[in-house]
Amino acid sequence: QRLKAAVHYTVGCLCQEVAADKEMPFSRQTIAAIAEVTFRQ
Amino acid sequence: KDWFLSEEEFKLWDRLYRLRDSDKIKEIRLPQVQFLSLQDEENRPAEEPTAGVHHLSLSEWGVWQDHPFPTFRVDHSDRCHHFVNIMQMIEKLRHEEGECSYELDIKSHLHMEDVS
Amino acid sequence: TGFRKELVSKLLHLHFRDDKTRVGADALQLTAELLRIFVVEAAVRGARQAQAEDAAQVDMEQLEKVLPQLVC
Hints:
The complex is a heterotrimer of chains A (about 40), B (about 120) and C (about 70).
Chain A: H1 2-22, H2 28-40
Helix pairs in contact in A: 1-2
Chain B: H1 7-16, E1 27-29, E2 53-55, H2 78-94, H3 101-107
Parallel strand pairs in B: 1-2
Chain C: H1 5-13, H2 25-52, H3 60-71
Helix pairs in contact in C: 1-2, 2-3
């Protein structure tokens, strides 16, 4: 779980950057979904 | 300088990103797709739907896949374009009435003597 | 922002069959960059879909629409 949290945290930070750049926020579920896909890939 | 989160990072993660027990969706999974025709090495059982767990769907928006979505820094692969072409064909066939154009196309290549 | 080398190393070692398998620094850096590019690509595609739909935020629906072509 700590490993997933670390991936999730990093993905969250990257999504925040995209959100600021695109002026489009991400829901927590979407960030968690991207983290899950990244972890699986 | 290790792989896991520092205390400060953990607090940020807990506050900003972590899915809460109070959330309708407490966990998100990308299910392993099972192809009956392809023997999966590990033969994992299909994942059962569980309350509070959202299984990401690769098929729910299948109808939307008949055109390539815009990309950012990574273009679509050949495999993706093949996928889009197939979805376009399926969409076309779905709306057809009467004779199936695809069947007509293929029939012209059919030679019964080739069929053993 | 990006994936720390130590985290990438830990992720890779999850999949190695032999514990003694080592990963070079360049390979770690390349994998970290690959992961970063993948995440940003997923995020931007989702954001664009949300913008196209005049959505207030990027929800899972927008991500699931771009997901099949993303994982392709």
